[in-house]
Design goal:
Elements (H helix, E strand, L loop, with lengths): L15 H9 L13 H11 L3 E5 L6 H12 L3 E3 H10 L3 H8 L1 H13 L7 E3 L8 H8 L2 E7 L2 H10 L14 H12 L5 E4 L6 H16 L4 E3 L12 H7 L8 E3 L8 H8 L3 H12 L7 H11 L12 E5 L2 E5 L10 H4 L2 H8 L5 E7 L3 H11 L3 H4 L2 E8 L5 H8 L6 E6 L3 H12 L2 H11 L1 E5 L5 H20 L9 E6 L4 H12 L3 E8 L4 H8 L1 E3 L21 H8 L4 H14 L1 E3 L2 H10 E5 L2 H15 L5 H13 L6 E5 L7 H7 L9 H9 L9 H9 L6 E3 L3 H20 L1
Parallel strand pairs: 1-3, 1-4, 2-3, 4-5, 9-19, 10-11, 10-13, 11-12, 12-20, 14-15, 14-19, 15-18
Antiparallel strand pairs: 6-7, 8-9, 16-17
Helix pairs in contact: 3-10, 5-6, 6-7, 11-16, 13-14, 13-22, 17-19, 22-23, 28-29, 28-30, 30-31
Protein name: THNS1 protein
Pathway: Amino-acid biosynthesis
Pfam families: SKI (PF01202), THR4_C (PF24857), Thr_synth_N (PF14821)
Length: about 725
């Protein structure tokens, strides 16, 4: 049995704006950007000021060595808790005290000694057991910045063996050291402000450089810029700001102003053995400034997002399909599509980012999957957050599958609503962009109802960010399964409509995943294929074709703008000019260097409806696995374009049951039921892989005999629907 420890975590988390004001009131933002020269180290020490730098981690993590080096580099006094606090307080060695009082009493004695200790402006190496005592850690953290040395347990075991240490505090005779190290991790993760992920084989100097780099980041601010403006032309925006705003005021999309998220090979090696939520936590910490979202709060969000609401414990598993092709199953969330991967997390981040006194309306256009995922994600918020956040979803009335429509309209909580529009997805998206860019309408909502608009589409950076995680995780899973070794290249093939999934894979490469080619797969709405091949984006005389893969029935792809900004190395003037031309002339052509860069990194292809159906039939016949139509589009294109020299990961973006009629036709089932639930039963009788999706079945049962509202494709009519919903939702709450 392990010694029973009860973790206690403070409920008072300092809000971002107040913290930032306090932090930067005495900090210069312009900290050096290179190799911590003497002057820069002095400046870093001045930022720490009268705070202490507390280094925590398990025994054998190297806290004392790192603390000494950091103290020397920063010119700050170094204190080792064991040697300089505990042994002086007890007048005996720590080991003797442990032997005399035993493990459980030792923790209390250790905590009592720390409660009587105070210091200012020091680097302090905490003992491995300090974080197990909540009261003393509250005391120490009250005037400190906590740095957690996250070292792999196997590395620690090797170090302990070399030091001939065979027992640590809390370890009993029937408990191994490996078990107690694993058990203790939960306590270290309750206290840190900064996590230093120590790679396998990192030297003490390597670890110290990481600590200094992370401290530098902590005292800097990370801002975002618009794809259409020079950084100096818009006010500084932080992560929480752009999460709430969604769209930049100039009509552009927000992107990070700088890129410093790349992981080392040793760090990637650490992530291989981690679970999906653990990987997500590390990667999101690299991408979200700890002042914007406290990492401990972020951890709670991640655990909630990727927990019991997913049908598969691996969350986004990799499955071998045929030959060198692998599918990443992104449909195990509550609404059976890849949109859950972001939208189980993003609503929590959104609620964290807005002030408690503000009301927000989330406006969403959906081509099918986003709608139900947004409604489900925001329905998981606590009641207090639901009182100040409402969701309105617009979907093309005849442009999504019957099952998708039933899913979307099955959500009937007071703060959410879905409205069908007699048009296509592009109109729904255009209508929402018009409302966002209409100052009079926004002013009216703010004045009359105290409501601001935001979005949960992938134009919102906080929605796009979690998608980067699963592309990274796919690569790590291939290593874990022995398919590739760390550093080997892969290709990815993604059914692409609004371009967020595709773009997130490119950001995964910027973090260090060696993706060789990004393959863009389209159906007969192949404007993106033409653009990738020619550099011409031409919407003139383009007619949207309704297909069996509605999520990619899109002509105007929002995230293409971010793609051009990324591929052109941040050329905002180019993006501004191109999108000004698109607005006025409905087409643009990228310069030759940009086209060459696209061709160097990307491939693109499309397939017809019949080819898509043939692929579904062929794969099921050979493997017993049913692809949904979007994944079948990607598989068809991958067959044509992928060279076979490395594995290709195909994004499987939805469970096949969401598109039961198309799947049953593809499998040549003769008698097709008109009832969606019966259609799912017909598929289930084939005993296919993957297995049936229970939450999807439940949502269809809820939606039986439910009616929903439909409006005409007119901007003014849509505006009236929005105002009506806001009035009914927020005025009712006032009453």
């Amino acid at each position: 049995m392990l010694i029973r420890m009860i973790p206690v975590l403070s409920n008072s988390v300092t809000k971002v704006l107040h913290f930032r004001k306090r932090l930067f009131s005495r900090c210069s933002i312009n900290i050096i950007t290179s190799t911590f020269r003497k002057a820069s180290l002095s400046k870093l020490a001045s930022h720490i000021g009268e705070k202490n730098l507390l280094i925590i981690g398990p025994p054998g993590a190297g806290k004392t060595t790192a603390g000494r080096i950091i103290g020397q580099k920063l010119g700050l006094p170094f204190i080792d808790v064991d040697d300089d606090v505990l042994e002086k307080a007890w007048d005996m060695p720590v080991s003797q005290k442990l032997s005399e009082v035993g493990g459980e009493r030792f923790l209390e004695e250790e905590g009592k000694a720390l409660l009587n200790f105070s210091s200012l402006g020091c680097v302090i190496s905490m003992s491995g057991s300090n974080p197990l005592h909540p009261a003393s850690m509250h005391h120490m953290k009250g005037n400190g910045i906590v740095v957690y040395l996250d070292v792999d347990n196997e590395d620690i075991m090797r170090r302990m063996e070399k030091m001939k240490v065979d027992r640590i505090v809390g370890q009993t005779s029937n408990c191994s050291m490996r078990d107690i190290l694993r058990y203790r991790q939960q306590f270290y993760r309750q206290w840190f402000d900064l996590r230093v992920l120590c790679g396998t084989g990192d030297t003490a100097e390597d670890v110290c450089e990481k600590i200094l780099k992370d401290l530098k980041r902590y005292f800097e601010c990370e801002t975002f810029v618009s794809t259409r403006s020079a950084p100096s032309e818009i006010p500084q925006k932080y992560f929480c700001d752009i999460t709430v705003e969604g769209l930049a005021p100039d009509g552009g999309l927000y992107v990070p102003s700088k890129d410093d998220t790349r992981l080392s090979a040793g760090e990637w090696q650490r992530l291989i053995g981690m679970s999906f939520p653990e990987r997500a936590q590390v990667l999101l910490e690299k991408s979200i400034h700890p002042v914007d979202v406290n990492p401990i709060q972020l951890m709670k969000m991640v655990e909630k997002a990727y927990g019991k609401n997913f049908n598969c414990s691996k969350v986004a598993p990799i499955r071998h399909l045929v030959d060198d092709q692998y599918v990443q199953e992104l449909f195990h969330g509550p609404t059976a599509s890849f949109k859950d991967m972001a939208l189980q997390l993003m609503p929590q981040i959104f609620a964290y980012s807005i002030p408690q006194t503000c009301n927000h309306l989330i406006l969403v256009a959906t081509s099918g999957d986003t709608g139900s995922a947004v409604l489900d994600g925001f329905s998981m918020l606590c009641n207090a957050d639901k009182q100040r956040i409402a969701v309105l979803v617009l979907f093309p009335e005849n442009g999504i599958s019957p099952i998708q429509k039933k899913q979307i309209t099955s959500y009937r909580q007071e703060n959410v609503k879905a409205v069908g529009v007699n048009s296509d997805f592009d109109f729904c998206q255009k209508a929402i962009k018009h409302l966002f860019s209409n100052p009079a309408f926004n002013g009216f909502l703010a004045t009359e109802y105290g409501v601001s608009l935001s979005t949960a589409n992938s134009i919102n950076w906080a929605r796009l960010l979690p998608q980067i995680v699963y592309h990274c995780s796919a690569y790590l899973d291939l290593i874990d399964q022995g398919v590739i070794s760390l550093g080997d290249p892969i290709d990815v093939c993604i059914p692409t409509g609004n371009f967020g999934n595709f773009l997130s894979a490119m950001y995964a490469k910027k973090m260090g995943i060696p993706i060789r080619k990004f393959i863009c797969a389209s159906n007969q709405n192949n404007v993106l294929t033409d653009f990738m091949k020619t550099g011409v984006y031409d919407l003139r005389n383009r007619k949207l074709h309704i297909s069996a893969s509605p999520a990619i029935d899109i002509l105007k792809s929002s995230n293409l703008e971010r793609f051009i900004h990324l591929i052109s190395k941040g050329d905002w003037q180019l993006v501004q000019d191109l999108y000004s031309q698109l607005d006025s002339q409905n087409h643009f052509i990228v310069p030759k260097p940009v086209l060459e860069s696209i061709r160097e990194n990307c491939l693109a292809g499309w397939c017809s409806e019949n080819e898509c159906f043939a692929t579904i039939h062929s794969v099921f016949t050979k493997t017993g696995y049913i692809l949904d139509p979007h994944t079948a589009v990607a598989k068809t294109v991958a067959d044509r374009l992928q060279g076979g020299t490395c594995p290709v990961v195909i994004s499987s973006t939805a469970h096949h049951a969401k598109f039961a009629p198309a799947v049953l036709r593809s499998l040549m089932v003769k008698e097709l039921s008109s009832c969606p639930l019966d259609q799912l039963q017909q598929i289930h009788s084939l005993n296919p892989l993957p297995v049936s999706h229970k939450p999807l079945m439940d949502s269809l049962r809820r939606a039986e005999n439910m009616e929903h509202e439909v409006c005409e494709a007119d901007i003014e009519t849509v505006s009236e629907k929005v105002e009506e919903f806001v009035h009914n939702t927020f005025m009712r709450q006032r009453v």
